[in-house]
Design a protein that fits this description.
Two copies of one chain form a homodimer. Chain A is of the alpha/beta class. The first copy, chain A, has 18 helices and 15 strands.
Chain lengths: 460, 460
Amino acid sequence: MNQNIPYKIYLEEQEMPKQWYNVRADMKKKPAPILNPGTLKPVTLEELSGIFCRELAKQELNDTTAYFDIPQEILDFYRMYRPSPLVRAYCLEKKLGTPAHIYYKFEGNNTSGSHKLNSAIAQAYYAKKQGLKGVTTETGAGQWGTALSMACAYLDLDCQVYMVKCSYEQKPFRREVMRTYGAKVTPSPSMDTEVGRKMNAQFPGTTGSLGCAISEAVEAAMSQEGYRYVLGSVLSQVLLHQSVIGLEAKAALDKYNIKADMIIGCAGGGSNLGGLISPFAGQMLRGEAEYKLIAVEPASCPSLTRGVYAYDFCDTGKVCPLAKMYTLGSGFIPSASHAGGLRYHGMSSVVSELYDQGLLTARSVEQTEVFKAAQTFAKVEGILPAPESSHAIKVAMDEAIKCKETGEAKNIVFGLTGTGYFDMMAYQRFNDGEMQDYVPSDEDLTKAISQLPKVNVSVH
Amino acid sequence: MNQNIPYKIYLEEQEMPKQWYNVRADMKKKPAPILNPGTLKPVTLEELSGIFCRELAKQELNDTTAYFDIPQEILDFYRMYRPSPLVRAYCLEKKLGTPAHIYYKFEGNNTSGSHKLNSAIAQAYYAKKQGLKGVTTETGAGQWGTALSMACAYLDLDCQVYMVKCSYEQKPFRREVMRTYGAKVTPSPSMDTEVGRKMNAQFPGTTGSLGCAISEAVEAAMSQEGYRYVLGSVLSQVLLHQSVIGLEAKAALDKYNIKADMIIGCAGGGSNLGGLISPFAGQMLRGEAEYKLIAVEPASCPSLTRGVYAYDFCDTGKVCPLAKMYTLGSGFIPSASHAGGLRYHGMSSVVSELYDQGLLTARSVEQTEVFKAAQTFAKVEGILPAPESSHAIKVAMDEAIKCKETGEAKNIVFGLTGTGYFDMMAYQRFNDGEMQDYVPSDEDLTKAISQLPKVNVSVH
């Protein structure tokens, strides 16, 4: 083992990024503008400020400013759980017998269990600064809701989470973490909102959906004085905040003069992947360096590898702005995969545009293989990974094995977005040999894609 | 805030301890020897080597060697999740408005979720080195079983865990973590062992007890060629391995010239507390420094504050050696507290002797107050603590508030042994306002203590 590179590279506090990086600023061809779902015209700052905090709406629309100062209060919060380590996977390398050097940026060492906290604290901070009373959001599996609850507790901001009813009932632990942090967690559909009451009347006994939970959260924000809605992925503002992952990773690599050959991340809505690759994609856009950037998505929800690049609704409830993105259609219902965080029909418009420009490649993997990789990783590296993160592990291992065949000592970097401690039902299915794979048929995809909204936009 | 002291002090890899420290070597009056439960005479190395690996048996009996080299393989494993951070609790200090400086040594950043892994890898290593096929153990709540499963998976050693049946059924997540790491997890009482079959016949439908699980694990080790039994707390060998906590904490404090005024740890069997305080107690024993050392135990199981110092069985099954310790009697059944790791009738003989010599003070706290402290801590410091660890948080906060009253800027250090991610049922009871406190009556204690074994030992 190369004793010059420690198992875990931790930046010193003074080496931590003090600015977020907005990769859009370095893109010659920008992501297409997001559209008002009512008018189908590019959304204005005023319109967007009705849903999101004003500062966040500004960040959302700003595709020219490369760096945003991270406010001191957010830096203070980051210091409680950041910098996250860049880990050299010595034991995994040994297990695979590969000459490759494998590194992972581990974002799971905080109570939310994932990278979501990076944006949650930013969004809660700007809400607090604007003098709001609270924020509303939806959560499926619960990572985002947990992260937001933690951020709001820290800032003494009210937090209302609409949790998809089946998760509320089947994942009581996540629900209790949120409640411990003082959040009000409501099973969706609820009787608190018009859309919830309507849904309950129309489908008695329904266990809910993410689309409905979003609609309820938006309605709750609109109908209460001093509240705004917040969202944990997909948005450009979220990718901006998540750039802290990539900036730290790059600083850690630079500190030890390591040049990454490839950077791999799992891709659901794109928040982790976009944050991780942003600084590296920026170098590529500026002609300063070359990397192989790989997005890994579940074969059950293959928006990049099998979707189309078109305007679509970001939410199934069709209340949020439309974005141009790689999408399977907002009506696409992915199979009950255990990587809940990757079950999204579309992809961040920034990631989509980078992919369309060829800066990024994509690969889809099936979940049984992903869990096998997760188990191998857990045994040798000691961390039980989240199913989402394990998609990146699988491809990193595949690439390391290729290096074994070719004898190349490539530097493979991947994002380990979180831990699987609240995903043990999925592991149980795997342990019991009952896990199944599902790949949508061409017919299913064609049908979903045929229902995309008809939008003609001639801006940019 | 003093910007000279970072939020988290991480030692560099080369600053990590390369030896464990055996505080017994510096004690003029040593802990009394452990006794063979059959003969009631001091147990010999040969006898002990039948139950434990030979190297561990040697460590158990060695009260004169101050430092033991940590084998390279264990150092390599430690580097995957150590050094653990010594965190300056800036946000908690601000919340309490205290002039005190609060630090905590956080052992929860690994998949086992606690400090248990420090000894699990050591015990698994020596078993592997001896050429054994596997190890057996018992687990209640599951922290120790999880840690041992991880260590055995890393070393490719068979791991058989007898898990108290009610936990096996009620805590399926911990069970699945162990299974993911390849351990064989058996609900106890099982039909695999004589003692288990007997128990099932005598008490049909019983949900088991830790005492019975220990007896099954010992029997399983004895009856299989190439197996030994391992235990996660109480033993002197475990405290030796856990000294890595205190050594790292001391090195981190020394690095920033911080002189701790008090060091606080929760106390169940004593493994975390003993490991944390060992190097500091060593300084006190050698007359080099003075600290206030505080053990915190649950009011429901107050072995130090209300027990007696006498020889007792370490396990309710009475198969393990006897130790002289502060005990409530091995027949004492603590109430169903949510800090499962602190529900032990006795206390490590090393911690007991330090307490008896007056180097250590003890305090007991009730669980509702403990969960209130845990919630406050979680909200401002971002980590959801284990119920066990939260006992130390409660007393650290009490001490910080005293400093506010007296205006003293004391340095308070406490051990945050783990996270509460698998304890959400307990938090749910707290969130729902349904948590109860229980303090045993004098009559209950007198009765349990009256049943202590009659032992006369005249050694040392």
